[in-house]
Amino acid sequence: MAQRTDRSTGPAYDVVVVGAGSAGAPMAARLSADPSRRVALVEAGPDYRSSETPEAIRGPNFIQIFSLGAYHWPELRARLTDYQEPQPYPSGRGVGGGSALNGQGAVRGAPADYDGWAAAGCAGWGWLDVLPDFVHIEDDLDFGDRSYHGTGGPVPVSRSPAPAWGPVSAALQRAAADAGHPEHPDLNAPDSSGLSPMTWHRRGGARVTTNDGYLEAARNRDNLRVLPDALALRVAFAGNRVVGVVVRTSTGDSLVEAGDVVLCAGALRSPVLLMRSGVGPADELRRLGIEVVADLPGVGANLQDHPLAFLGFPLTSAAQDRPPGALSGHCVLRTSSGVDGAAPLDLEMLALDRHLMDPSLGGLMVALMQPRSRGRLRLASADPIREPEPAFGMLADDRDLLALRTAVREAAELVRHPAFRRATDAGASLEPGRPVEGCSDDELDAWLRGGCMGHFHAAGTCRMGDPARPETVVDPAGRVIGVEGLRVADASIIPELPRAATHLTTVMIAEHVARSFLGDLGGDEASDVELRRAPQSARTRTGTRS
Fold first, then answer.
1. What is the pTM of this model?
2. How far apart are CA 393 and CA 390, in angstroms?
3. I need a labelling partner for 203 at 20 to 30 A (CA). Which of 73, 160, 165, 326 fits?
């Protein structure tokens, strides 16, 4: 039975947005700012007011959230490298989505990342094009007066002052300085490099999600309806024209009718929805018995994540004495691998003052931030309940393996600096009893292939680009090639990962596509003053730093 309003003719909604996470909440809030536009926000997980947010989501240790099964997809597994078995891959569910589940990093990446998007066929997505969106969404609590930052936006950006840093963070700062690395106070400044305080989407010590920053102010609008616990099964078409989204709830399956649909379900679910709707690689869809609406071979391809290695060490008793609510790390060092063709600052080392699952351990999380390896997400079957099968193919490109091995060697060298003696009595190890120094390059490579982790920054599976290119899934306005009335606006459209955690970029994508969409609709966006006030439930303390 279709979801309808009291209007007797036409679709029930003007727009259906699928997914209420880092992209979907901003998209629904922006589109519903015009009271004449009827918007439905379909979310597979639970809905709750900002004041009802579980304490595990507000807190600093996101591992606790996995005890709350309703807020992630517990059955999702992914193969990270070709040498590993499939393993759990965290993916947010419920209002706030990934912003309620991630490590809380609020990082933009480098201007060259977005200029690279524009050069690759994403017209209008260069640094100067997206900078206004970054400024618009920010409430930078430290540098909001700078021309390239914003104040009062829905997403707070905060940094911990150096006196609050733990021993590992303080040691990394000293060791990096003595190794000749520059220091910059603002990780998100266009010209920053070297060591910087980590930036977080936190206010007063508490996580602020897109449910807090966007939906809380918008959900009481008469023209916005949130449909929680509603699993989107497929997009419905009449020919190649969208007519709505088929959803499954506790009462059965129904069609939520709409004139336009925007998929904001994330890099692992937006391509699945497209393929189950007949939009994707035609031969694969036919093998699964799915009628083809549009043959787009790029759907599910170009799968990316930032490969990550953890170098751990036992903490001294003094270093273990940290407040229970303290963040696990406070600063990040960006360096360059020097691998042929690699961009500057392609490596990242994040201090970990306390391991998220073992408080007796600390370490450095070492990541490759501009990988060349690509994977693919495929449908396991046409069954709408069965999880997809992502295979990231991390480190398949030998240049990625060399770059990450270089980072591991450099990190181990930094841990040998005397500044680390307050934090640990041992050097960096691949695992207990296996120091980095004793390993050959071949042994390190084998360890990386077998034990490499993901940063959980899945991206790229509905690649944005030049509509004339066969790998393109959406054009620079987010419109899906070959069909009408369907857009994608989330991390899946990222052509190449920015050198950053993807949350802030994903929010920016939603804002940028919403702006384009509103332009196509021929209307002006209403005032968003409400959205630029952080909700009181997220303001546990005021001030310039958290």
1. 0.94
2. 9
3. 73
